[in-house]
Amino acid sequence: MPTKTTKPVRRNLKATPPVRKKARANEAQMAAKAYRLAALDQDFLLGDPMRGMRFLLEYEKAEQNLRAWGVRSTIVVFGSARVKLDGPPQHRRWYEEARNFARIASERGGAMDVADGLRDNVIATGGGPGIMEAANRGASDAGAPSIGFNIELPHEQGPNPYSTPDLTLQFHYFAMRKMHFAMRANALVVFPGGFGTLDELFELLTLRQNDKMAHDLPIVLFDRLYWSRLLHFPTMVDAGMISAKDVDLFAYADDAEEIWTTLIARGLHDVPAKQARKLRAHPRKSKKS
Length: 289
Fold this sequence. Notes:
Layout lengths: L26 H5 L10 H4 L5 H18 L5 E5 L10 H20 L13 E4 L5 H11 L4 E6 L16 E4 L2 H10 L1 E6 L4 H15 L9 E4 L1 H7 L2 H6 L12 E3 L2 H10 L24
Parallel strand pairs: 1-2, 1-5, 2-3, 3-4, 5-6, 6-7
């Protein structure tokens, strides 16, 4: 018996147009820039009128991270981003001495002590390569935290890998970055550098000269030959641009151990981790007392 064949079903292959949703009556209002939450509106936050607020945000974010780690005071290390460990012999020496100094300071200065939740003499750098990397690396060698106050520059593409991640902070404003350098500084060590290093050195020298620091900040310039060839301070004294006593605001050192002993001689408090608890009063000669 022949089987019954079924006729193929013809389907309409023509695509049906999508169903258009009915526009909401307030769609234009909700899409407007004015309706964005202020805290989520990048066009608003990055506009010129909000520069003051961005300045405040850069201050507060860094402040909260430093407090979370109990950083009460720092030893600031400045120096060139162009110094390389595999560079000329002079560069290698500067790099190694910066690394050795940061290790010594971290071991002896109290950066690793958290007995009462506070740390003193934590190494702080600009967070970039060169001397900054060397100093952060020295602190890392000691097992201590260190700070990187980073800012994007043509020769500094991101932070070095040795600063503590939670203490690696990025800044847009040089002024706020400098403020954080100065606020907790117990000492300043300046290795050879260029325009940026000179700018940062003279910023803190000016604060010291005008009694704008809370205490007599010890300042050491590393490599006497480099600095004496670069800057002839007696010329400024002879011309009456600075006084003779202003030259005493800083000292020179030529190796890592000499940096440390010079800082101690100039008033830095030596706070070994095992003894830090006893010295938490951390006396300073206050200009306001």
